[in-house]
């Protein structure tokens, strides 16, 4: 559904539930990561951009302590909680917990504010590795920040969202998704240092399309092996006497191989090599050096497949098929947390039809899954939708 249609439906839905047009509407985008996978929680580097698929929140403030929410994407399920009693998890509705968690963590930061009526809708594909959850967390945080003039930055909104996900929802995600959803900019990718949260905007080349291919192999992050990977990385850092895997070079890692088990060494090898690739890929993108970009994205994929073991067969199939088409004119790799989800390809615009055709001809026949394709533009981070 287009963003315009979604906005119109959202307002109508709000009026239907709450009897008047919403006072304001806010949005926060999903993201695609170009390179730098699982490096964020190792204090490393990532290179994502926000995409033109987003979560929208229509809102009217209330004068009491009640927060009422309608989830348009969940058959208009509703939730209601009070700000003046300890906010607890919802027993059955996972979507509610993202909202409850964000609001609770705003309170834990010491902010006080009144309630709100909210309707939430989104077109970020869910469970696809495009950060629909982070976009929800950031959209809710931004809504309360602006509605009640909370003295915090958009970066704080990102960190608050991550804390809610870590501590309230229970997924030990890093900071990448929330940061780019909060701070992304149009036509720019964000090279983010996940330790300092310093970032550098990198202009996206106009001659390459950003193509996202959803394998439609679904795997929720909370249920996935994501947390195990994180523990293995922490084990590696601790055995190597480091604060984080960010703090070691590939050469040093190789020298200390004997300190780690075979599996943990491979996990660490992915992270340390991926950090290097991410910095080099940011340079290559900036200089329009597509041959280098192509090689780095290919190496990243192999590293995710063999060292980190987070890819699945249908995803590997898409990457192989598209890299045959794209060659060194762009790059292709799995994107996101893994165990399903999406592939990202940067490719010349005139190759897009070829890539689509190849997917149509071969993907389902070879894997049994149907792919969805989204052509994206790097988009602005969270903010109010003027209407
Ligand atoms: C998920 C997490 C991020 C990041 C990626 C993998 O999207 O939410 O913090 O770790 O996986 O790069």
Summarize the structure.
This protein is α+β, with helices and mostly antiparallel strands. The chain is built from 11 helices and 12 strands.
Kindly describe this structure.
By secondary structure, the protein is an alpha+beta fold. 42% of the residues lie in helices and 22% in strands. Strands 1, 2, 3, 4, 5, 6, 7 and 12 form an 8-stranded mixed sheet that branches. Helix 3 packs across helix 5. The two termini are 19 Å apart. The model has no long low-confidence stretch (mean pLDDT 96). Bound molecules: alpha-D-galactopyranose.
Q: First CA to last CA: what distance?
A: 19 Å
Portion in beta strands: 15-25%
Q: Report helical residue fraction.
A: 40-55%
Q: Using the CA coordinates, give the radius of gyration.
A: 21 Å
Ligands, ions, cofactors? alpha-D-galactopyranose
The coarse silhouette is globular
Question: Based on DSSP secondary structure assignment, what is the total number of beta strands?
Answer: 12
Which consecutive residue ranges, at least 5 long each, have pLDDT under 50?
none
Describe the sheet with the most strands.
Answer: 8 strands, mixed
Order of helices and strands: HEEEEHEHHHEEEHHHHHEEHEE
Nearest-integer average pLDDT: 96
What count of helical segments does DSSP give? Answer: 11
Indicate the structural class: alpha+beta
